[in-house]
Amino acid sequence: MFDALADRDGGRLAELVDCAGAAMCQPAALRTGYQPPDQVEILTVAYGDPAAGDSTRRPNRNHATVSVRYRVDGQQHDQAVTLIRDGSGLTRSWRVVTPPGALVDILSTTVATARLASGEVPTVREASAGDRRDGAVWAPPGVYTLAAVETPLVAARPSTVLVASERQAVTVNVAVRPEVVDVVTRQIRERVDACATQPTLQPDTGTGPLSNCPMRAETRYSFTRGVRWTVLDYPRVELRQANDGAVTVHTLAPGQARADYSYTLDVIEPRAWTATATTVDISVGGTVSVDGGRITWAG
Hints:
The protein is mainly beta. It folds into two domains: 2-175, no CATH class; 178-298. The chain has helices at 2-6, 10-17, 178-196, and strands at 34-35, 38-48, 60-72, 75-85, 94-98, 102-107, 113-116, 119-122, 137-139, 142-148, 154-156, 159-163, 168-171, 174-176, 223-233, 236-241, 247-253, 255-264, 274-282, 287-291, 294-298. The strands form six sheets. Strands 1, 7, 8, 10 and 12 form a five-stranded antiparallel β-sheet that branches. It has a four-stranded antiparallel β-sheet with strand order 2-3-4-5, covered by helices on one side.
């Protein structure tokens, strides 16, 4: 079995461990992104307890526990491996029922799948409590590269995972794609520009049930006219991954827009109009999604 790991042969591992359905026991799962354990030693072999009622009290030679020692990334680990054999006769084969290695809870709120070495594995939002195995992935001992299966919104940021005998939880690291930031920045500027064409102090492009313009000017005058917006600076934004997996937009530095208009205090004609201006900040938020392959900002 350790020879199969040294050869990075997931298919052979599946034959020996009876784990053909497991992600890490697929033929190509260990071929890249995996460093097998080294300095493997077999320390002891103990057969199983005698069968109940056996007057001779002989060990059960169809069950065995092998104590093994190996090193992962220079660290020594001892682990017990249990084997059984079925049937009768002299040519019965052993199979491993509790192999070395450990369960790994692969955490992500952003991507549904990740790659552990070359094996595709599911992610979970949180590790199972207690001894529950829900969503956990079994992996043989070794050093693995962990990377997200990328999406149109996020790119993988690979990390290293050391697997030995203890269960652990590891988080999949991702980063919002730079091209997504560029697309969203352009969409925000297009929205601001569209809002700036509206001849009102509270612009609305009319493309949604609520006003979708990120700048509004307040005035104490009841009568105004000739509103003209000028964008002085666009907001500088950052895209973040929220706890629920969404990609959200946050304003790092607000932009600014100036509204030039005239006001009057007169109620009846002829009215005297006075020119004035006010400057407001432009801040945006919202979320980013992919619809039909198109990156869309909703804010």
